[in-house]
Automatic annotation (TrEMBL):
GO cellular component: nucleus; site of double-strand break
Molecular function GO terms recorded: isomerase activity
Keyword Isomerase: yes
GO biological process: DNA damage response; positive regulation of double-strand break repair; protein localization to site of double-strand break
Listed name of the protein: Topoisomerase (DNA) II binding protein 1
Keywords: Isomerase
C-alpha cells in the first residue's frame, strides 16, 4: 500500500481499511485535513487517529469499534501482523480471494495459496502439502460455506493438525495484540459444536 495516510469519514470493514491498518498506515478522520488546511500546514496526526473512543462517539457498531483499535496498535508495531503467516485461502469467489490476498500481503504475509477444499484434501492424501522452510505448518483461512462436515473431519485426520480458521480471524489479529488461533474458534470446532446430539438410549 503506497500511501502514508488513509482518511475515512466513517470506518467500515472494507478491503481498503483492512489494508491500511495491516500496513501500519495512519488511519485518520477528515478533521486532520480540515485543521491542516486551516493551519496551512500539516498538524499532528495523533489527535485525529481513529480509535475506540472516536468510533463510540459516532455510534459505530461493535465490530468497527473493535477494528479501529488496531489503527494505533499496527502503526506502532515492530513487525507486520501477518509476517510469519503461511496461508491457504479457501474463498467462495475469486474476487474474495483477491481481496483477502491483498489484505494479507499488506500485513506482510509472503505465502498465500488459493485452494479449494478438495485440492487440499488431495494434497494431504498425496503427502504434498506445503511445509514452511522454517518448519512451521501453514493454516487454512476459509469462508464458512466452503467445507462440509465430512471434509472437515477428513482434513483433521490427515492434515497433521492444520487448522481451518474463519476468514474474520484476519481482522481479529489486526486489533488483538499477540493474537493466537488458540483463542479463536476454528471451523472444525464450530462444526463440532453444531453437531446434533445423538439420541439417548432412553429415547
Amino acid at each position: 500500500m503506497a500511501c502514508t495516510h488513509f482518511i475515512v469519514q466513517k470506518p467500515m470493514q472494507t478491503e481498503s481499511l483492512l489494508c491500511a491498518i495491516a500496513a501500519g498506515k495512519w488511519v485518520l478522520a477528515p478533521s486532520f485535513l480540515e485543521e491542516s488546511i486551516e493551519a496551512r500546514a500539516f498538524v499532528p496526526e495523533a489527535p485525529h487517529e481513529w480509535n475506540e473512543a472516536r468510533a463510540a462517539r459516532m455510534g459505530l457498531g461493535r465490530t468497527v469499534t473493535a477494528l479501529v483499535r488496531g489503527c494505533r496498535l499496527q502503526r506502532t508495531a515492530a513487525e507486520r501482523p501477518f509476517a510469519k503467516w503461511d496461508v491457504f485461502l479457501c474463498c467462495a469467489s475469486e474476487s474474495r480471494c483477491q481481496s483477502f490476498s491483498h489484505v494479507l500481503r499488506c500485513g506482510g504475509c509472503k505465502y498465500i495459496e488459493p485452494r479449494r477444499p478438495y485440492e487440499l484434501l488431495e494434497d494431504c492424501r498425496l503427502l504434498q502439502l506445503y511445509k514452511s522452510d522454517e518448519g512451521e505448518n501453514p493454516f487454512v483461512l476459509a469462508d464458512d460455506n466452503m467445507w462440509d462436515q465430512e471434509g472437515l473431519d477428513e482434513f483433521a485426520e490427515i492434515s497433521g493438525g492444520l487448522q481451518v480458521l474463519k476468514l474474520d480471524y484476519i481482522s481479529k489479529c489486526l486489533y488483538t495484540e499477540n493474537g493466537s488461533s488458540e483463542d479463536y474458534r476454528s471451523l472444525q470446532n464450530l462444526a463440532i459444536r453444531k453437531r446434533p446430539r445423538s439420541p439417548s438410549a432412553d429415547s
